[in-house]
Amino acid sequence: xxxxxxxxxxxxxxxxxxxxxxxxxxxxxxxxxxxxxxxxxxxxxxxxxxxxxxxxxxxxxxxxxxxxxxxxxxxxxxxxxxxxxxxxxxxxxxxxxxxxxxxxxxxxxxxxxxxxxxxxxxxxxxxxxxxxxxxxxxxxxxxxxxxxxxxxxxxxxxxxxxx
Amino acid sequence: xxxxxxxxxxxxxxxxxxxxxxxxxxxxxxxxxxxxxxxxxxxxxxxxxxxxxxxxxxxxxxxxxxxxxxxxxxxxxxxxxxxxxxxxxxxxxxxxxxxxxxxxxxxxxxxxxxxxxxxxxxxxxxxxxxxxxxxxxxxxxxxxxxxxxxxxxxxxxxxxxxxxxxxxxxxxxxxxxxxxxxxxxxxxxxxxxxxxxxxxxxxxxxxxxxxxxxxxxxxxxxxxxxxxxxxxxxxxxxxxxxxxxxxxxxxxxxxxxxxxxxxxxxxxxxxxxxxxxxxxxxxxxxxxxxxxxxxxxxxxxxxxxxxxxxxxxxxxxxxxxxxxxxxxxxxxxxxxxxxxxxxxxxxxxxxxxxxxxxxxxxxxxxxxxxxxxxxxxxxxxxxxxxxxxxxxxxxxxxxxxxxxxxxxxxxxxxxxxxxxx
Lengths: 163, 421
Ligand SMILES: Cc1ncc(COP(=O)(O)O)c(C=O)c1O
Fold this sequence. Notes:
The structure holds two protein chains of two kinds. By secondary structure, chain A is α+β, with helices and mostly antiparallel strands. Chain A contains six helices and three strands. Chain B has helices spanning 8-14, 41-54, 64-84, 98-108, 135-144, 164-167, 190-199, 251-256, 291-307, 309-327, 357-366, 379-384, 401-417; strands spanning 29-30, 92-95, 122-126, 147-151, 172-178, 203-207, 230-234, 245-249, 267-270, 275-277, 333-335, 347-352, 369-370, 372-374, 390-394. Chain B is globular, with a radius of gyration of 22 Å. Chains A and B meet through α1 and α3 of A and α11 of B. The site of pyridoxal-5'-phosphate has 14 residues of chain B, from α4. Chain A: GO terms for molecular function: iron ion binding; iron-sulfur cluster binding.
């Protein structure tokens, strides 16, 4: 009984839940390359407000910072925390790749072997994939990040055209 | 324990699903009946028998089966009418669920007619409504330019009746509220609010989705000035099937309201220029109705009437009192709603400090205990308590004290698991 729970609530997840990384909104939301989004899980009411700041240097667009305020369960909070660790500082293209890998893991119903090289602490969520009702929790922060990043890329690209 | 249904073990045997176990072989502890109730064998059998032996369309099939199906369907209406003490059986309209019934009223009140809600008019609701009794009224008032105003409630989960004079005025066209709250469990003063609303000529619409399963309802016995004009509930919470809801409305009001949906069955004659409409109840039942569902609902309310709604209510109160006592032993647990079991319904929402409702429900689920976690379609009410969501246990006729013990024990375990306290 407890083994089933332990598969879901890995120590890493509970640690991130108790001490979330990069939490608290930072930076100027109206700065160039910054986009803020608000996502909710309509079935349970979990919410996240997430701010992404992208910056281009040497022709590479990078995730300069991700900050957020959120309320929700241990899975959604820990997942958002792990996500910020994984994407901050990475080139956008690479970060999007990590997102894809995480998404595949979550949608695999427990049959996908997680890649620690890519996902680091994110492998702790492998057990969540076996609990269909919780997959949405694990994806809330990621979906918000992807949305904000895509929006920022469009505006940044438009900005680039003007130069 | 006093108040429990005398034949509780026999009642439990009536519900086949209670005999099943979880994947780990644990017994099922179903404490989510405010969400939907389980179904007794008689309801399942009545529906199967209908489909196996009497199936045909109603009202329009001129043959043996058609006559039998029509009789069974209309028999369901008779049983529902008896269950709520409807003054007339033709005042009982079948809809898809409670939500559709509420939309039917809110939508038709926005159309041409004696009761049309327009600019400057006021519709009054409460902050403890289910979303199904908020959104239709928002849609009506936004479309018509009327104003939606709200009763608030206090820390103890009781409506603030000191607002009555300010909210229920000559401008007020509709007053709508839930009889029993699905989140707080509060039982609202139907007679008093209805009397006040009628004094200013307002129409009273009561959401009885949580009341019909638990309280004896006898509309005909209510003094006219205290009887709501419309009462709705949903079949699946009164041990009936999904796919059917009930709208009872005062005949004179239903006759004045324009039709809601157009189609077969709801007409008298149709020409290419115009149609004339059928009388009650068919005027509001366009298309093929939920036939087998009405048969099942009829069997369901007969089953509850057989237990006796006074006895059902006493059982609910006994279990609720026992649950409130047990929940009180869990450190860091806060009940959102009235604490006196005699003043409330059987849905108990609570917060457990340090553990999110989703995580509470997950731990309970692994132990075979089904509760609801989330906003229970009552976000405004949660916002009042400064919380996003809560965990809710809700009992019914088949709930035992032993199941409450299992819940309380599991909540202590949940705290240990998440190392709080
Ligand atoms: C108080 C209340 N009103 C309305 C509803 C809506 O019922 P349904 O979803 O069957 O339309 C519910 C049930 O969820 C309820 O508890």
